[in-house]
Amino acid sequence: MPGLDTFARVVKEVRCDVLAARDRDPAALGVAPAEILATWPGIHALLTYRFAHALYVAGVPFLPRLISMLTRALTGIEIHPAARIGRGLFIDHGAGVVIGETADIGNDVTLYQGVTLGGTGFAAGKRHPTVQDNVTIGSGAKLLGPITIGHGAKIGANSVVITDVPPNSTVVGNPGHPVRVDGRRVEGPDTDWIHLPDPIAEAIQALSVRIATLERMIGELSDGEQQPMAEVRPLRTVKGPNPAGG
Predict the structure, then answer these.
(1) At what angle do helices 4-24 and 41-57 cross, to 10 degrees?
(2) In the prediction, which pLDDT does 242 show?
(3) Which long-range contacts (CB under 8 A, 24 or more apart) does 76-85 make?
(4) Does 181 share its domain with 202?
(5) What is the DSSP letter of 225?
(6) What range defines the domain where residue 156 resides?
(7) How many CB atoms lie within 10 A of CB 75?
(8) What is the CATH classification number for the domain harbouring 180?
(9) To 5 degrees, how large is the angle CA 137–CA 38–CA 136?
């Protein structure tokens, strides 16, 4: 059974989780840590996970999985007791979050509601994602298989990611793919989901430019008339202030 050292470690980890919620959740502004501990479902899920994980590592049968299922019923968040989670994880709202058995999550990671760190196939062994430090994963994103999400990456809402993600990159789409690699950016969660790149509009814009060039060349070879380049509008709104306050 876990001893006093394990208990002290769990308490320290939960304290980091509470501080992460206070620092990253605007709704926690001015809220005391005790209130966060008592009323935040993401904190409840992490508290019970860390206790269940300690029991799992100690080889206690049945009880860790029972704790996981009861927590799922109470919070809507399912974390397998065998998953490995670093300090300072923040699960915002949390409903529908699933973290699989062989998932590895680093330090200071932020997950929004509906995120799945799932597996693929029925093979044993490593089959869930590895998420490195300071990663932000948007609402509804699905990360599937033994992939690695690089340090500081940002996964757009509802993306489906099935391949490795480079560090400090932004991923959107289904299947998800990096559309922006900024180099090393400011550490910490990035909640601006409005100003993400629009790869479809960018591809159409490139095709429009190419077609206009070809039409100009054809016009020069025929009667010299040039056709105006078609206007391509982004498929989503990109104007307006950054809702993250940046």
Answers:
(1) 150
(2) 52
(3) 76/41, 77/41, 77/42, 77/45, 79/45, 79/46, 79/49, 81/49, 81/52, 81/53, 81/55, 81/56, 82/53, 82/56, 83/49, 83/53, 83/117, 83/128, 84/53, 85/46, 85/49, 85/50, 85/53
(4) no
(5) -
(6) 100-194
(7) 21
(8) 2.160.10.10
(9) 10
Find out whether 40 and 23 touch, Cβ atoms under 8 Å: no
Same domain, 234 and 156: no
Edge-to-edge order in the sheet of strand 142-144: 78-79, 98-99, 116-118, 142-144, 160-161
SS3 state of residue 51: helix
pLDDT tier for residue 206 given thresholds of 50, 70 and 90: confident
Q: Alpha-carbon distance 189 to 191, whole Å? A: 6
Q: Are 52 and 67 in contact (CB under 8 A)?
A: yes
Together in a domain, 226 and 161: no
Number of domains in the chain: 3
Q: For residue 91, tell me if it sits in a domain.
A: no
The answer on 207 and 152 residing in a single domain is no
Q: Within this chain, do residues 187 and 117 fall inside the same structural domain, yes or no? A: yes
- Looking at 40, 55, 82, the residue that finishes a domain is 82
Same domain flag for 123 and 184: yes
**pLDDT by residue (tens digit) across 82-113?**
999 999 999 998 899 999 999 999 999 999 99
Per the listing, tokens 């070809």 go with: 214
Mean pLDDT of 194-215: 75
Residue 95 inside a domain? The answer is: no
Distance CA 214, CA 65 (A): 63
Give dist(CA 136, CA 31) in Å, integer: 23
Residue 17 lies in a domain: yes
Distance, in Å, from the CA atom of 217 to the CA atom of 124, rounded to the nearest integer, reads 58
Nearest to 71 by CA among 39, 35, 104, 47: 47
